[in-house]
Structure formats: C-alpha cells, structure tokens
Write a structure and sequence with these properties.
Blueprint: E1 7-10, E2 12-16, E3 21-24, E4 30-31, E5 34-35, E6 40-45, E7 52-58, E8 63-69, E9 71-78, E10 84-90, E11 95-98, E12 102-108, E13 113-118, H1 125-128, E14 130-131
Antiparallel strand pairs: 1-11, 2-3, 4-5, 6-13, 7-12, 7-14, 8-11, 8-13, 9-10, 9-12
C-alpha cells in the first residue's frame, strides 16, 4: 500500500568516475504548494550498542530522510485515513519524503548513519513533534 504524497526512491547515484561516486540526496523535489526546501539538516549516528526506535510522531510540515550507511525500516501511517506503509532505506535506496500529518517511526540498525531534513526549523519535541501511537 502507498500513502498519498509519500515519495520514495529519491536521488541515488548521480555520477561515478575513477575518483568518486557522487550521490544526489534531493534536487528540486516538487511538493504540494511548491518545492521542498530544507530549513534544517541533521545527521544521526546510531551507536553500536543495539538497534533503536526513532519517531512515533508526526509533524505539520514535510520531512526528508536518507541513509548514508546502514539501514532503517520506516513505518508510516496517514493519521486521517489510517493507511499504512513500510519503507526500508539503505545507502543505495535513495531518500524518503514524508508529507505533513503522516505519522512515522523507524527502527535503525546499529552503526547506521541517517540524515534528516525538515521544512521547518526544529526547536524541541514539545514544539515540533506531535505524538502518535503506532502499533
């Protein structure tokens, strides 16, 4: 099942030569009302102790994720329709663009590196994260 507005398999290998592999994370992603523009970009390095669970919330703005290394399994749920989908990201799968009001959580493998970009600046969990119970 897919959820309206969720975009998967963004970017990927853009160029390769004997010096490097150049990966495009995103470039002019069209979204409802314009083009996705990141106000903040964060990098999360998952420590080597265990897999971790991130998320369990939604936002009122767009959010983008990509794996620089490792793997994460995302579960997404439209909070209005209850439609649900799963997406597995790794360094070769490209990115994931999540629309506003789509709840999300991710199980990240240990030693993974996840990059996240948000359409609005992140201030605090209380300000930005809308808790959402997902089974």
């Amino acid at each position: 099942m897919t959820i309206e507005g969720v975009v998967t398999e963004i970017g990927g290998l853009a160029h390769s030569d004997d010096r490097r592999d150049l990966y495009e994370l995103f470039n002019g992603l069209e979204i409802e009302g314009g083009t996705f523009s990141a106000q903040q970009i964060k990098l999360a390095r998952i420590k080597d102790k265990q897999e971790i669970l991130l998320g369990g919330h939604y936002h009122n703005y767009w959010e983008y994720f990509a794996m620089l290394s490792g793997e994460a399994k995302f579960v997404l749920e439209d909070i209005s329709t209850k439609d649900r989908m799963e997406v597995v990201l790794d360094e070769k799968s490209g990115g994931l663009l999540i629309p506003p009001r789509i709840a999300h959580k991710a199980v990240c493998r240990k030693n993974s590196i996840l990059i996240g970009a948000t359409e609005e600046s992140y201030i605090s969990p209380e300000h930005n994260d809308k808790p959402y119970k997902m089974d």
